[in-house]
Amino acid sequence: MKIKIKKPRLAIIPLAIVFAVGLILFIGAFAKKDALSTYNLWGAKQTIVESQNIDSDNDGLKDWEEDLYKTDKLNPDTDNDNYLDGEEINSGHNPLIKSPGDETLFYPLPLGDKYDITNKILNSEFIGAILESYVAQKNEYVSDHEISSPGDYNEIIDKSTMKIMFERAIADGYPALTQSASKILETMPEIFDIQITDKDINISDNNSKENINTYITQASSILKAKTFFLQQQTFSAVTAAFKEGDFSKIDTIISSNADKVEILKAMSVPSSWKEVHKQGLRLILVIRNIFISFRDLADDPLKAYVALDKFEKFPDQWNRFLENVINLAKQQNIEINL
Questions:
Q1: b or e along 64-103 (b: 16 or more beta carbons within 10 Å of the residue's beta carbon)?
Q2: Domain ranges in the chain?
């Protein structure tokens, strides 16, 4: 049987944009009111600014996070087991199932205190590199302009100068920050270093051509859905989110793909296709977590920065997966249209 294969081109954000956004992630975080933190610019002391994201029921989950977890944004305890939804998420429990017996989520979303990479680093010594650089620049500015008081400093310095000072400070502290973030993420492989085992999927011993074709049809319908993570329009939405600083634009994409993960996990997979299926499911979970990390930029910019690096490398991984799909189909003389 002749194999007809249409290999898709995976659209990606141009490298130049990716590189530029990498720095903007940090600068924007310190410049906006809903940033994770800011500093007393005269005394260079860290202060925490509460996020402006809405938490209607005060359960520890922002409304957009409740949409992802499918919890009730107006009920702080969706499953009525006397534990707040946010408490259950942060302790690794399912807020939709009453305790006891509320099984942990399958590869939980990288949200909440447990996965707040930036906050963990801000509470460590590494933030000192940024503060030291900024204070040195501030003192030089104060000396050059003969400033004698904090009030005079705030009146004289303009926003563009302050932005440049932050840019330099962040650039100076960048190596320490990223190194620290990477070390923390190594202890959390469920975010970007996901591993899928045979126990995580539903494997069938039926390797008949008919069953394989049924499986391929089901899987392909998900991968080719207009709202799937890797479609052109989703990449356009990410680009727009970075340019406009409005990451709520990708809420619909994240939400619409939540069920797809569960479907791929539950569907019957012919044993001859299990390795390819595990590879695809792993990558879909990774790209899901990348998008969620982008969405959580205001609260966790360091995790978003690492996600951006993963996003840049993702197309190569996905294309290797597609090659494995194509090669396996050829071996089994299966017609496939990707």
A1: bbbbbbebbbeebbbbebebbbbbbbbeebbbeeeeeebe
A2: 15-21+190-331
